[in-house]
Amino acid sequence: MAQEINDQQFETEVLKSTVPVLVDFWAPWCGPCKMLGPVIEELSQDNTGKNVKIVKINIDENNEMAGKYNVMSIPTIMFFKNGQPVDQMTGVQEKSVLQAKLDELA
Amino acid sequence: MPENYDVIIVGGAAAGLTAALYASRRNLKTLVIAKALGGQAVLTPAIENFPGIKKISGIDLMMNFAEHAQSYGAKIVYETVIKIEKTQEDFLIHTANKNVLRKARAVILAFGLTPKNLNVPGELEFTGKGVSYCATCDAPLYKKKSVAVVGGTYEALDAALLFAKQDCDVFLVHDQDNFGVFKKLFAQVQENKKIKVYLKTQVQKIHGHQVVTSIDVAVDGKAENISVAGVFVEKGHRIDSSWLGDLVARDKTQSIMINEECATKTPGLFAAGDVTQQRDKQVIISAGAGASAALAAYRYLQKIKGKPALLVDWQHES
């Protein structure tokens, strides 16, 4: 399961992470976000034990980080490395595209 | 070595998932390749005309479709098909994932519709940074901000009212002088003080700095700049089948032409749902078409194997 985090955990889990992190900004009202859900779960399983981390943040309950990083469309996938956002994608993405980005950052 | 399937279905919404259910119930080795599940249905908060279910969200209905198909053995992968190649006996299916090549004896095209773009400078650059194609997804992120809704569709009117409810200043921009049959909804929009309607107006450019800041429009030929934080494109949909090349015939709307067996002009290649000339774009109709396409594919596979197409629903008495 991809780890669900909140605004308070963002610093520890994402910004201070020693490995690259994929963050899925989503909300329960958003159909495409829910459709992306299984893709993120599969990605999470595929990368178990690898040098990357995959987390989800529900922006309905946690809007601070979404605001800070200018999330204006959901789903938004952001990639962080060494505490910095290094890439982002909006809308539903296919698994191989996300995996390729993770492999590039790892 | 390519992965082998009896049927590969391109698209994972009402037509594709129903085709997957029917194909897997005929014991065909079935794969659905979809960028994501659910298609346009997932943008619908409530579906109230699917027989047997009085009310259900589009997401839940589509998830049920997917689970139902999977329960009979259909497999789903999340990729985008970029090319289909016809060989002597099979179809080779290429996706953006270059590591895998898949092969099937029959293919069902059910990839639905694609949102229409504005095709103006700034659109691509600011997609996800203020330009959006899903008002229901992103509206809560624009509370009390100024937004433009562009298009003459039912969805455009609906989105304008949704933003007005969120206390946004809404600019509804449409290049025609009316909203056709949606008179009642347009009347509601006109009565709403939060919505300013621009008719006979074209969006010409989207400006921004990291995020959208304004749009240039031409109102009846006269230039104007409107400050907005968001541009919601609701111009309707189109069929993007150009990547199929000569494998299918198309009508003037680019719909894939099929016969009563859901067959395209290429033997073994079937199509169902919104990508076809089917007039009404409804979940129930696409689901029915998906079932027909799967049964037609089953009959086709039986025939090329030299076996009788067993399990017919009825038999005409001569």
UniProtKB/TrEMBL annotation, chain A:
GO molecular function: protein-disulfide reductase activity
Active site residues according to the UniProt entry: C30 (nucleophile), C33 (nucleophile)
InterPro entries listed in its UniProt record: Thioredoxin, Thioredoxin-like_sf, Thioredoxin_CS, Thioredoxin_domain
Chain ranges of the Thioredoxin domain: 1-106
Cross-referenced Gene3D superfamilies: Glutaredoxin (3.40.30.10)
Site location (Deprotonates C-terminal active site Cys): D24
Marked site (Contributes to redox potential value) residue numbers: G31, P32
BP GO annotations: cell redox homeostasis
Entry keyword annotation includes Repeat: no
SUPFAM superfamilies in UniProt: Thioredoxin-like (SSF52833)
Family from the record: Belongs to the thioredoxin family.
Protein name: Thioredoxin
UniProt organism field: Candidatus Kerfeldbacteria bacterium RIFOXYB2_FULL_38_14
From TrEMBL, chain B:
InterPro entries according to UniProt: FAD/NAD-bd_sf, FAD/NAD-binding_dom, Ferredoxin-NADP_redctase_2
Keyword terms of this UniProt record: Flavoprotein, Oxidoreductase
Taxonomy, superkingdom: Bacteria
Single GO term (MF): oxidoreductase activity
Pfam families assigned to the protein according to its UniProt record, in alphabetical order: Pyr_redox_2
Ranges where the FAD/NAD(P)-binding domain occurs: 5-284
Protein name: FAD/NAD(P)-binding domain-containing protein
